[in-house]
Batch of 3 targets.
Target 1
Amino acid sequence: MKNIKKIVIAAAVLPMALTSASAYAFGGKDSGQHKGGMCGGGDMGKGMMRDLDLTDEQKEQFKEMRKAGKEQMKAKFAENGADMMAARQAQQAKVSDLVLADNFDEAAARALASEMVEKQTERRVNMLKKQHEMLSILTPEQKVKFKELQAEKMQKCQEKMEKRKNK
C-alpha cells in the first residue's frame, strides 16, 4: 500500500517538477523576465499608460475597469474555485498518465493537446476582449501613440533577443 502511495505521489509530482525545471531553464524566475513571456504581449501596464497623457476622466475609467475586472475574478473563483481546481488536477492526472504510460498514445496526446489549446484560446479571447474594452476609451491620437509605444517595446524586445542569441 505504501508503494502505491509513493507511485501516485511521484506520478503527480514528477510532471510538475519537470515543468518547473524546464520553465526555469528557459528563462524563468531569475532571468529578468516578467509576466507575458520574454517581452510581454499586449502590455497595458501603468508605465505605458503614463506615456499616453491620459485625462483624469480616462484614468478614472481605467481604474474602474481594473477594479471591476478584479471583482469579477474574485467572484468567479469564489463561485467556481473548487471546480476549477478539480479540473486542473484532472488535467494534470491525464498528463501524468500519458507521460508515465509504458507506451506513448499519440491519439490521446493529440486529444489532450487539443483540449488544452481550446481552453487557452478561450482565455486569450477573453483577455483580448478586455484589452479592447480598455483601449476603446483612448482618443485616436492616443491610439496612435499607443501603437508607437508598442513598436518601440517590440524593437527593444527584438534587440534583447538578438543580444541573447549572440552570447
Note: Confidence is low (pLDDT under 50) at residues 20-38.
Target 2
Amino acid sequence: MQNPYNAPSASLAGGGNTSQNLSHLIYGQRILIGVIVAHVLAVGSLVAAPGLGLSQGAGTLVMGSFFLIELLCLVGAFVGLYKVCRGLKISGVVIALLFLAMFVPLVNFVTLLVLNGRATRALQQAGYKVGLFGARQLAAA
C-alpha cells in the first residue's frame, strides 16, 4: 500500500530544467554579473571623481566615460535579463515589465540582483556550483 502522505511523483510536461534552459541561465547570469560589477565600478568612479580635484576637461572625460559604461550596462542588462528570463521560463509580459524597470535608477540594480539570485537558486538545484563569476558543473562522483 502506498503512503498517502507522499508527494506526487508524476513528471509534468514542460516542467524541470532542460539543458537549453540551463545554458540560457548560465550565459545570462554571467552577463548579469558583469553588468552588476561594471555598474558598481562606474557609479563608484563617478562618486569618487569630485574628491580627486580634477580639471574641467578631466571631469568631462569621467562623465562621458560614465555614460558610455552605463549605456553598455543597459544593453548588457537587456541581453542578460532576456536570457535569464528564458531560462527561468518567465512570461513575456513580465519580461517587458522588467525591461521597463531597467530605465528606473536603483530599481534596475535591485531587479538585476533579484534575477541573479533566482538564477543562482535554479542553477544550484540543477547541480551547478555557482560562484562570483557564474556557474560551473560539479564534477561527477
Note: The first helix runs from residue 19 to 48.
Target 3
Amino acid sequence: MYHAFSLLSLTGWLGDELRGPEGWFHAHLFVLGWATMLAMGAVYQLIHVILQSNIYSLFLGYCHYFLFSIGIVGMLYGFICADVIWIAGSATLALSGILLFGWNMAVTLFRASQWNPVTISAACSCLYLVLTGLYGMLMGLNFAFGDWNGLHERLFGAHIWMGTLGWFGMLITGFSYKMLPMFYLSHDYSIRLQKVVLVLWNAAVITGVVAFLTGFKGGLLWLALLLLTAALLFYVYHLEQIQEKRHKSNPGPGIRWSVYVSRAFAVYAVALLIYSSQGTELLLHPRVVLLSGWVYLGGGCLSPYLAMPPKSCLFYGGPTNMASRQADPNSADGRYAE
C-alpha cells in the first residue's frame, strides 16, 4: 500500500529537493512506509530459520506493528499539513514501535546465543535502526525547540548514513549469507570473507557517523566510503564463492537479479570513490546525494528484498517448510545439504 502511494507520486518529486515538508513526506513514505516495513517483515519471517528457534514474543511483534503503522500514518499527515504537533506525537509512536522491534530481536538473538556473521549482522542492523530512530527524534526535538542549532545538520547526516548503510546494509548482507546458499544449494564454501565484510561494513558505518557528528566530513567521510567500497568488493566476491559451490544452476530470476544488482552497486561505489577523490565536498552535492540514494535504496537494497519474498514463501511459508527439510543440523554456520 505504501509503495503504491509512493509510485503514484513518483514523477512529481523524483528530482525535487528533499528538504522541507513535502520532501520529508515522500522520503518517509518510501523509506519507512515501504522499505523499513518490508525489511521488518523479512526479519520476522527469516529469524526463525536463521536461529532454529521461535521469536521471543509474537505479542510484542503485533504491538510493534500497530505502533509503527499508526506512527507512520500520523507522521505523513503531519508532513502534509506542516503540523509540528502531529509530527512529534506520531514520531513518538513510530519510535516506540522501533524500540519494541529492537528489544524483541535483541532478546531473541541473545536467547539463541548462536553468534556468527549472519546473526551478528542482524543484531547490528537492529541496533542501527534503533539509533537511527533516536537520532530522528533528536532532530524533531531540535526542530521544535531550536536548542541545538549547530547540531541539527550533524544529526541529519548521521541519521541518513546510519539508517541506509547501517540498518538496510547490514541486514541485506547478513541475510544473503543464509539465503543464497539455500537457493543455490551451496555448501563447503568458506565463510572467512563474511567476517571481513562484517568488520569493514561496520567500520564504514561508524566512521561515517563520526564524520557527520564531529563535523570533520572531509577525510573521514572519504575513508568511510573507501571502507564501504572495500566491503562491497569482498561481499561480491563472496557471492561468487557461494555460486561456485552451488548444486543448483538456476536459483530463479529474482535471485540472479539481486546478485547482478550487487555487482552493479559495487561498480557504482568504485566510481563514486574515484570521483570524490577530486574533493570530498563532491560527495555532499545534493544531486550526488540524491542519485546515490536512489541507486542504493532503489537498487542495492530493495532489489534483494523484492527478489526474495516469492522464494522465501516457498522455503518458509508452505506446509512442507523446505528450509527445515534442507537445513543441515550438523552445520554450525547454517549451510545446506542437498
Note: The CA atoms of residues 189 and 242 lie 6 Å apart.
